[in-house]
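Note to self: keep these together.
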Amino acid sequence: MNKDNKLQASLPKGFKDRWGDELDLKNKLVDTIKEVFTSYSFEQLETPEFEKSINIGSFLAEDESNPMSDVFSFTNEKESLTLRYDLSAPLARFCAENFRDLVFPYKRFAYGNVFRQEKADSARYRAFAQLDADIIGDANPSQADAEICNIIGESFKKIGLSKEQFTINVSNKKILQGLINELKIEEDIQYKVLKSIDKLDRLGVKGVEELLKQGRTDQSGAFTRGCELSDNQASEIISFLTLKGINDLKANLKNPLSSEGINDLEKLFEVLSYGSNQDSVKIDVTKIRGLSYYTGYLVETNLNFKVTNAKGKEINIGSVASGGRYDNLISRFKGADYKGTGMSIGIDRLLYAVNQLDQIKINKNRPVLVCILDKAFIKEYYQIVNELRANNIPSEIYLDQNKNLKKQLQYADRKKLDLAIICGENEFKDNTITIKNLKGVKGQNSQTIPKEKLIDEVKKLI
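Structure:
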């Protein structure tokens, strides 16, 4: 291949490689949250990245003429397949397919990448990791929904955030749905109205009002057609978004469906009062959730600290843990009718934010480097590294016998390793080993010990 035909090494927009300290932090977040889920007796489930398009549905679509525009779909010789856009739709299919073998209420958690065709930016990706917890089957709705709130609160505290650094916002879809019915908004645009309101955090009140009416032109000049509500309908909805707390909602909304949703929230907070996370949970009726399958309780978790993009500009990172109640998602399948509630933590978005805090520390044992000073003792060097590994001490042997000690120590320094084992002819003759503490004070960071004390001394230093 000549120079002009060489490939450009780059990722498509919306995708990201992760490695080094960032990946270590991501793994810590995931492992810690999984421990919380397990402590609540949730069982892990793994489902494939692909589902049949007809089964996964099109709950994200904003383009009415192309309902699969927001997902990655492919057609093979027999059927249409879609990369999962969340972990809830695959869960619904799994429960419908395996309901005879499951114990209900079925409490499951799942971790994996999901895929969406959406505009990408520094904190929004087209492939990103989610960590979900869901409760499927007959259960007291208030207890199940409260458990979802509690598991969010516990997870965020366990990863190292203080309760002041996040807020778990809850609402109930019935409250707004009751108002929409009262305003006689046509059924075929109701979902579009909900999607417009769901953009409040990004577009502000003015932007949402434009989407509720004739439409909005964004900064690029692209026009999004609005819901074409009347001025009175749009005004009533905008006023609704300013309501705060149970008493405010009761005083302003009297229709039966809204009252039912308000009552659901009261019962939710009663159960939350029995635990330790109630102070982190707030009512926010502006939290609507864009996915159409939610039927009642809604939750969105927001961070209360500054997050910036690569250019240092403060950005609205959005929700980092969200979900709600979906009582009809599984009933789409034959012979299955199970209620569900759950939430999803956006691991990559959460990682992007907490990585800027430099608050969550990673306790990582860096490998010990066994240096090669003399080719004649290569067998002995391998005996040392094998002994370290047999005692669960991460270690590596330098893989180039021709490099001098200086080059080997430079390698250790670049990898931020803690210790180096340095043995030459004298050490092997005397049955000793020299350990160099690469983080220690120069001139005082080496010690020569009897070979049999190797493991004990290394464990003291790592």
